[in-house]
């Protein structure tokens, strides 16, 4: 039987340079605020330590310097909707382009102008291929100075790592059929934040019903999905007959490696 790990050991080995340690710390703070908010309020134990001045006689270990973190959810991610494309024939099939356009404008502000900046990005994609073609998307991203790759083994840890770097994550998921047996040719959105139980997304088509596989309305920006239900539609493998099943660690995502 393995012995339990004491809290002091977590603190001793905490390394602010490691992304998963930062994610762990944010999760701890989120749980703390959820269950014991009084410790951070005026007069609370942790608030008192935070406000202690340099002359305080309280014996506190020297804090480990922490690098400034990006906000979570990320700020500055535009709200591009595929349904208002000037190319009417592309409105129902340009989710991949609109999602990657949100990524480009978040990383290279000013690259795409106006509320229909995703149309400008779509035009670049079409120089290299169809909007549904991953290779065309990667070439279009490179055109804007974003070096990226398509992976098919993504999980929530990868999302957390990218958000910690300040990078939104375009993800392909199955938005039709029941949540335990999703179907369809797939759909793309961009993840802009996370909590221990949720992901925060911009879906260019609208708000989906993750349980039943329908679309609820056209407002797909800043949505909060449960990890449980999104994971069942995002990390999947085929089982025949056009249906899929949950397969942890097999999510489709565009991962940014460098920004030029």
Mind explaining what this structure looks like?
The protein has 260 residues and is an alpha+beta fold. The chain has two domains: 1-69, no CATH class; 82-259, Cathepsin B, Chain A, CATH 3.90.70. The chain has eight helices and nine strands. It has helices spanning 7-13, 19-35, 45-51, 95-107, 117-128, 134-143, 156-164, 227-234; strands at 146-154, 169-173, 187-194, 198-202, 207-209, 214-217, 223-226, 235-240, 243-259. The strands form two sheets. Strands 1, 2, 3, 4, 7, 8 and 9 form a seven-stranded antiparallel beta sheet that branches. Strands 5-6 form a two-stranded antiparallel ribbon. It is globular and about 55 Å long. The N and C termini lie far apart (50 Å). The model is unreliable at 53-68 (pLDDT under 50).
């Amino acid at each position: 039987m393995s012995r339990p790990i004491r809290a002091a050991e977590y603190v001793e080995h905490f390394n602010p340079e490691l992304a998963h340690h930062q994610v762990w710390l944010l999760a701890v703070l989120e749980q703390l605020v959820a269950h014991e908010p009084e410790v951070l309020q005026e007069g609370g134990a942790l608030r008192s330590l935070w406000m202690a001045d340099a002359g305080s006689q309280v014996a506190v270990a020297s804090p480990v310097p922490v690098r400034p973190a990006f906000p979570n959810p990320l700020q500055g991610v535009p709200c591009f909707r595929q349904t208002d494309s000037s190319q009417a024939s592309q409105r129902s099939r340009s989710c991949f382009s609109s999602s990657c356009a949100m990524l480009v404008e978040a990383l290279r502000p000013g690259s795409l102008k106006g509320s229909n900046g995703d149309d400008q990005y779509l035009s670049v994609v079409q120089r290299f291929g169809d909007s549904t073609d991953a290779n065309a998307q990667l070439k279009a991203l490179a055109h804007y100075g974003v070096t990226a790759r398509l992976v098919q083994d993504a999980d929530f840890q990868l999302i957390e790592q990218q958000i910690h770097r300040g990078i939104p994550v375009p993800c392909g998921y199955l938005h039709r059929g029941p949540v335990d047996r999703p179907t369809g040719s797939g759909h793309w959105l961009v993840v802009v934040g996370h909590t221990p139980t949720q992901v925060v997304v911009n879906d260019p088509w609208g708000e989906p019903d993750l349980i039943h596989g329908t679309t609820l309305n056209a407002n797909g920006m800043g949505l909060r999905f449960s990890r449980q239900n999104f994971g069942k539609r995002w990390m999947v493998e085929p089982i025949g007959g056009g249906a899929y099943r949950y397969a942890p660690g097999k999510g489709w995502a565009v991962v940014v490696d460098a920004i030029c």
